[in-house]
Input
Amino acid sequence: MGKPGRVMSVSVNYKPYVRRVVRDGRAQKAFAANIGNAAGSCVAGKIKGQKPGKGAVIDALKSCTAQYKGIHYSI
Output
Protein backbone atom coordinates (compact mmCIF):
# COMPACT_ATOMS: atom_id res chain seq x y z
CA MET A 1 0.00 0.00 0.00
CA GLY A 2 1.19 3.51 -0.73
CA LYS A 3 2.10 6.20 1.70
CA PRO A 4 -0.89 8.08 3.07
CA GLY A 5 -1.23 11.80 2.60
CA ARG A 6 -3.51 14.25 4.31
CA VAL A 7 -6.08 16.57 2.73
CA MET A 8 -8.60 19.01 4.13
CA SER A 9 -12.17 17.94 3.57
CA VAL A 10 -15.65 19.01 4.65
CA SER A 11 -18.10 16.65 6.32
CA VAL A 12 -21.80 16.37 5.50
CA ASN A 13 -22.39 18.80 8.38
CA TYR A 14 -19.99 21.30 6.72
CA LYS A 15 -17.34 20.88 9.40
CA PRO A 16 -13.73 20.81 8.14
CA TYR A 17 -11.53 17.87 9.00
CA VAL A 18 -8.27 16.29 7.86
CA ARG A 19 -8.60 12.91 6.15
CA ARG A 20 -6.12 10.35 4.92
CA VAL A 21 -5.71 9.60 1.22
CA VAL A 22 -3.35 7.29 -0.63
CA ARG A 23 -1.33 9.12 -3.27
CA ASP A 24 1.09 6.50 -4.62
CA GLY A 25 -0.68 3.18 -4.20
CA ARG A 26 -1.13 0.44 -6.79
CA ALA A 27 -4.48 1.75 -8.01
CA GLN A 28 -3.19 5.30 -8.44
CA LYS A 29 -0.12 4.12 -10.36
CA ALA A 30 -2.24 1.87 -12.62
CA PHE A 31 -4.61 4.75 -13.38
CA ALA A 32 -1.71 7.06 -14.20
CA ALA A 33 -0.09 4.49 -16.49
CA ASN A 34 -3.28 3.55 -18.36
CA ILE A 35 -5.34 6.74 -18.47
CA GLY A 36 -3.99 9.68 -16.49
CA ASN A 37 -0.77 10.52 -18.30
CA ALA A 38 -2.25 10.20 -21.80
CA ALA A 39 -5.36 12.22 -20.96
CA GLY A 40 -3.33 14.88 -19.17
CA SER A 41 -0.97 15.40 -22.10
CA CYS A 42 -3.95 15.55 -24.49
CA VAL A 43 -5.62 18.28 -22.42
CA ALA A 44 -2.35 20.18 -22.05
CA GLY A 45 -1.88 20.09 -25.82
CA LYS A 46 -5.37 21.43 -26.49
CA ILE A 47 -5.12 24.39 -24.13
CA LYS A 48 -1.45 25.24 -24.74
CA GLY A 49 -0.68 28.86 -25.51
CA GLN A 50 -3.91 30.31 -24.19
CA LYS A 51 -5.34 31.24 -20.85
CA PRO A 52 -8.40 28.99 -20.82
CA GLY A 53 -11.44 29.42 -18.69
CA LYS A 54 -13.07 26.64 -16.74
CA GLY A 55 -15.42 25.78 -19.61
CA ALA A 56 -12.57 25.39 -22.10
CA VAL A 57 -10.70 23.05 -19.78
CA ILE A 58 -13.82 20.95 -19.18
CA ASP A 59 -14.51 20.72 -22.93
CA ALA A 60 -10.91 19.65 -23.61
CA LEU A 61 -11.08 17.10 -20.80
CA LYS A 62 -14.34 15.62 -22.11
CA SER A 63 -13.01 15.31 -25.66
CA CYS A 64 -9.73 13.74 -24.49
CA THR A 65 -11.25 11.23 -22.07
CA ALA A 66 -14.25 10.05 -24.12
CA GLN A 67 -12.27 7.04 -25.36
CA TYR A 68 -11.50 5.91 -21.80
CA LYS A 69 -15.09 5.91 -20.57
CA GLY A 70 -16.01 2.54 -19.06
CA ILE A 71 -12.49 1.08 -19.27
CA HIS A 72 -11.53 -1.31 -16.49
CA TYR A 73 -7.88 -2.16 -15.98
CA SER A 74 -6.15 -4.65 -13.77
CA ILE A 75 -4.07 -3.47 -10.85
